């Protein structure tokens, strides 16, 4: 009689009026995307402050719900009839499924928490919790412990049904993808930029991706990596696009122009300029990079300032204060680490000087850049862009 489902909850803080509608719409799209391709059709039903999903096997629903940015709590549950009797029977059934019989379970400290979204239910929340608790004591002989229970039985009275659950899992959290706008991520093959992209998505930015290759001076290995990374990140948003732009020749021109120990920073500025032009075409309102302060010599504060000066879009650095080991741990958690660790021919190591200047100024860079025709170069680079649509499985 009771049927399995999963309750999904999101932070309601600060959500009012139009914001709330937009937030819920984005969340719904993300949820739909995460449930696409499930082994059975999934029903998604929006209630007040909670979304209920059902239809596919529970483990699959739970696994998919965990991908959804904006969901704070993933709560496997039973949906049962809108009555006290059904609730008691379902609690008993849920406990038996998890713990077997009272003999097998032994003594477990437990608590019942009840809340009502339907205020017309015949019992109040406290009364319902006490009533169900008494039946559990009767059947299982367990001691009640409201402060530090081993088993927490949650009962949520909705308008047409009652939900019973024994566990709450932490979801991805954050704000639904798209609810904060769009950004273009500069994606290399390393650990940092995919994690930066994920953190940007977590704050509600829908992300497009651009990867610069050293072609024609380097092979396609970095593009394969970027492709695989975007496919992994696509699980969190759907419809991700990867733009690949070869800059090998432009890198060589910078070297010929005598960039010397400014070569890396000059390349970074060129990437940012080209990314800005692409972002404007795509309607993205910010650029995202994986810089972490002081991680490598190209990421000193002075160099960050020099790079940033080349764009008028906000240049977001979600990882600016992260340590490398924190970044790698996060990369493992979100599934990009295995790809990032593969070897590739990175365009940045190409033509890289023996020593990288750590205290550059925009003026120094401008004097190198004057020897090149940037107004012509950027549109030319953009004309060579290749667009891929890597899809998550
Ligand atoms: P990552 O681990 O992301 O490769 P990193 O530690 O290697 O970063 P850098 O190579 O200095 O650091 O790059 C800093 C940032 O510049 C990257 O995080 C990325 O956002 C951007 N970037 C660097 N190289 C490329 C590239 N080939 N294509 C696109 N973006 C790049
Ligand atoms: Mg790199």
Automatic annotation (TrEMBL):
<keyword id="KW-0963">Cytoplasm</keyword>
<feature type="binding site">
    <location>
        <position position="299"/>
    </location>
    <ligand>
        <name>ATP</name>
    </ligand>
</feature>
<dbReference type="GO" id="GO:0009229">
    <property type="term" value="P:thiamine diphosphate biosynthetic process"/>
</dbReference>
<dbReference type="GO" id="GO:0052837">
    <property type="term" value="P:thiazole biosynthetic process"/>
</dbReference>
<dbReference type="InterPro" id="IPR020536">
    <property type="entry name" value="ThiI_AANH"/>
</dbReference>
<dbReference type="GO" id="GO:0004810">
    <property type="term" value="F:CCA tRNA nucleotidyltransferase activity"/>
</dbReference>
<comment type="similarity">
    <text>Belongs to the ThiI family.</text>
</comment>
<dbReference type="Pfam" id="PF02568">
    <property type="entry name" value="ThiI"/>
</dbReference>
<dbReference type="GO" id="GO:0005829">
    <property type="term" value="C:cytosol"/>
</dbReference>
<dbReference type="InterPro" id="IPR054173">
    <property type="entry name" value="ThiI_fer"/>
</dbReference>
<dbReference type="GO" id="GO:0140741">
    <property type="term" value="F:tRNA-uracil-4 sulfurtransferase activity"/>
</dbReference>
<feature type="binding site">
    <location>
        <begin position="211"/>
        <end position="212"/>
    </location>
    <ligand>
        <name>ATP</name>
    </ligand>
</feature>
<dbReference type="InterPro" id="IPR049962">
    <property type="entry name" value="THUMP_ThiI"/>
</dbReference>
<keyword id="KW-0784">Thiamine biosynthesis</keyword>
<dbReference type="Pfam" id="PF22025">
    <property type="entry name" value="ThiI_fer"/>
</dbReference>
<dbReference type="InterPro" id="IPR003720">
    <property type="entry name" value="tRNA_STrfase"/>
</dbReference>
<dbReference type="GO" id="GO:0000049">
    <property type="term" value="F:tRNA binding"/>
</dbReference>
<keyword id="KW-0808">Transferase</keyword>
<feature type="binding site">
    <location>
        <position position="268"/>
    </location>
    <ligand>
        <name>ATP</name>
    </ligand>
</feature>
<comment type="pathway">
    <text>Cofactor biosynthesis; thiamine diphosphate biosynthesis.</text>
</comment>
<feature type="binding site">
    <location>
        <position position="290"/>
    </location>
    <ligand>
        <name>ATP</name>
    </ligand>
</feature>
<keyword id="KW-0820">tRNA-binding</keyword>
<protein>
    <recommendedName>
        <fullName>Probable tRNA sulfurtransferase</fullName>
        <ecNumber>2.8.1.4</ecNumber>
    </recommendedName>
</protein>
<keyword id="KW-0067">ATP-binding</keyword>
<feature type="domain" description="THUMP">
    <location>
        <begin position="59"/>
        <end position="168"/>
    </location>
</feature>
<dbReference type="GO" id="GO:0005524">
    <property type="term" value="F:ATP binding"/>
</dbReference>
<dbReference type="Pfam" id="PF02926">
    <property type="entry name" value="THUMP"/>
</dbReference>
<comment type="function">
    <text>Catalyzes the ATP-dependent transfer of a sulfur to tRNA to produce 4-thiouridine in position 8 of tRNAs, which functions as a near-UV photosensor. Also catalyzes the transfer of sulfur to the sulfur carrier protein ThiS, forming ThiS-thiocarboxylate. This is a step in the synthesis of thiazole, in the thiamine biosynthesis pathway. The sulfur is donated as persulfide by IscS.</text>
</comment>
<feature type="binding site">
    <location>
        <begin position="186"/>
        <end position="187"/>
    </location>
    <ligand>
        <name>ATP</name>
    </ligand>
</feature>
<dbReference type="InterPro" id="IPR004114">
    <property type="entry name" value="THUMP_dom"/>
</dbReference>
<keyword id="KW-0694">RNA-binding</keyword>
<dbReference type="GO" id="GO:0002937">
    <property type="term" value="P:tRNA 4-thiouridine biosynthesis"/>
</dbReference>
<keyword id="KW-0547">Nucleotide-binding</keyword>
<dbReference type="GO" id="GO:0009228">
    <property type="term" value="P:thiamine biosynthetic process"/>
</dbReference>
<dbReference type="InterPro" id="IPR049961">
    <property type="entry name" value="ThiI_N"/>
</dbReference>
<dbReference type="InterPro" id="IPR014729">
    <property type="entry name" value="Rossmann-like_a/b/a_fold"/>
</dbReference>
<dbReference type="InterPro" id="IPR050102">
    <property type="entry name" value="tRNA_sulfurtransferase_ThiI"/>
</dbReference>
């Amino acid at each position: 009689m009771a049927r399995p489902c999963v309750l999904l909850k999101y932070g309601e803080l600060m959500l009012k009026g139009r914001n709330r509608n937009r937030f819920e719409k984005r969340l719904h799209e993300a949820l739909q995307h995460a449930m696409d391709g499930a082994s059975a059709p999934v029903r998604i039903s929006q209630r007040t402050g909670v979304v209920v999903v059902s239809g596919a096997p529970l483990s699959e629903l739970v696994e998919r719900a965990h991908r959804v940015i904006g969901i704070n709590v993933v709560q496997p549950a039973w949906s049962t009839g809108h009555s006290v009797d059904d609730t008691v029977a379902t609690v008993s059934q849920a406990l038996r499924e998890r713990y077997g019989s009272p003999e097998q379970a032994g003594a477990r400290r437990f608590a019942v928490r009840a809340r009502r979204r339907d205020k017309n239910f015949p019992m109040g929340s406290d009364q319902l919790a006490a009533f169900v608790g008494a039946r559990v004591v009767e059947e299982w002989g367990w001691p009640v412990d409201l402060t530090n229970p081993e088993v927490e039985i949650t009962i949520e009275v909705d308008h047409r049904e009652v939900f019973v659950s024994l566990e709450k899992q932490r979801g991805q959290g954050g704000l639904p993808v798209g609810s904060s706008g769009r950004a273009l991520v500069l994606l290399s093959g390393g650990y940092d930029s995919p994690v930066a992209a994920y953190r940007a998505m977590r704050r509600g930015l829908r992300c497009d991706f651009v990867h610069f290759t050293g072609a024609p001076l380097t092979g396609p290995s970095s593009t394969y990596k970027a492709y695989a990374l975007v496919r992994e990140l696509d699980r969190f948003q759907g419809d991700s696009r990867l733009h690949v732009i070869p800059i090998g020749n432009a890198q060589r021109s910078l070297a010929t122009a005598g960039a010397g120990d400014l070569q890396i920073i000059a390349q970074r500025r060129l990437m940012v300029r080209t990314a800005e032009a692409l972002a404007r075409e795509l309607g993205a309102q910010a650029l995202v990079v994986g810089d972490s302060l002081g991680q490598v010599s190209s990421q000193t504060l002075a160099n960050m300032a020099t790079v940033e000066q080349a764009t008028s879009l906000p240049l977001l650095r979600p990882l600016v204060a992260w340590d490398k080991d924190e970044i790698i741990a996060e990369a493992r958690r979100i599934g990009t680490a295995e790809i990032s660790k593969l070897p590739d021919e990175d365009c940045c190591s190409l033509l890289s000087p023996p020593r990288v200047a750590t205290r550059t100024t925009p003026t120094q860079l401008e004097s190198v850049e004057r020897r090149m025709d940037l107004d012509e170069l950027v549109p030319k680079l953009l004309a060579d862009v290749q667009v891929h649509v890597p899809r998550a499985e």
